Amino acid sequence: MWKHTIRCVSASFTHMETYQGKLISSCSEPNPDMVQEGGQRKKPNILVTGTPGTGKTTMCSALAEAIHLRHINIGELVKEKNLHDGWDDELDCYVINEDLVCDELEDTMEEGGNIVDYHGCDFFPVRWFDIVVVLQTDNSVLYDRLSKRGYSESKLSNNFECEIFQVLLEEAKESYPEERVLALKSDTIEDISRNVATLTDWVRNWNSPSSLNL
Ligand SMILES: Nc1ncnc2c1ncn2[C@@H]1O[C@H](COP(=O)(O)OP(=O)(O)O)[C@@H](O)[C@H]1O
């Protein structure tokens, strides 16, 4: 149930208009300056995951602006390019087609310099990401945020329980080397600023031997 639930693409995104232009242009125009000789990435790829409402899109947007990386909102991409297998009435979301998503992103990810934003992480190729950030939010705070989205009672409780049982953190730890997984609290505006600062430092130090010692 968990897996199926988090494989769906939520219909309610608060930042769709803002990100759509960026997404289309960024995915369609490979930048040769970002690829080193031999195909090794010049800039890192970051995956930001977590239960819906934990602040992925908000944080990714701020981080992308701060450090000039490309923000890829998988939910938006799936809708924009029809990378799904239709609408699930029961779960009230699109059913993502993971193969189509991975095919769509392969070249972009190879270039590096991407911040990928999605409430799931186990179907991406492990080699794509240099760090996997899992945002976590206190239950009472998350409940308020999700209630404001007008989710159905079942969707609300699915997402709420997903956070209580730390489904995304477990999924990240099972899918990626544990030293690449970083859990960050996302309850307040101050948390967003601190997380952006932490990750900005990490990007600047990327490729140095201590880059994962956060
Ligand atoms: N750390 C935070 N502190 C306060 N409000 C936040 C925080 N993170 C997100 N929000 C708010 O919560 C809502 C959901 O955030 P969003 O970034 O869309 O989450 P997600 O992308 O994980 O679904 C938005 O209204 C956003 O402004």
UniProtKB/TrEMBL annotation:
Annotated GO biological process: ribosomal small subunit biogenesis; rRNA processing
Region (NMPbind): 73-96
InterPro entries: Adenyl_kinase_AK6, P-loop_NTPase
Pfam families: AAA_18 (PF13238)
Region of interest (LID), ranges: 148-158
Keyword Metal-binding: no
Catalytic activity field: ATP + H2O = ADP + phosphate + H(+); AMP + ATP = 2 ADP
Keywords: ATP-binding, Cytoplasm, Kinase, Nucleotide-binding, Nucleus, Ribosome biogenesis, rRNA processing, Transferase
Subcellular location: Cytoplasm; Nucleus
EC number(s) on file: 2.7.4.3
GO cellular component, one term: nucleus
Keyword Nucleotide-binding: yes
A single GO molecular function term of this UniProt record: ATP binding
Binding locations of ATP: G53, G55, K56, T57, T58, R149
Function per UniProt: Broad-specificity nucleoside monophosphate (NMP) kinase that catalyzes the reversible transfer of the terminal phosphate group between nucleoside triphosphates and monophosphates. Has also ATPase activity. Involved in the late cytoplasmic maturation steps of the 40S ribosomal particles, specifically 18S rRNA maturation. While NMP activity is not required for ribosome maturation, ATPase activity is. Associates transiently with small ribosomal subunit protein uS11. ATP hydrolysis breaks the interaction with uS11.
Subunit structure: Interacts with small ribosomal subunit protein uS11. Not a structural component of 43S pre-ribosomes, but transiently interacts with them by binding to uS11.
Entry's family note: Belongs to the adenylate kinase family. AK6 subfamily.
Protein name: Adenylate kinase isoenzyme 6 homolog
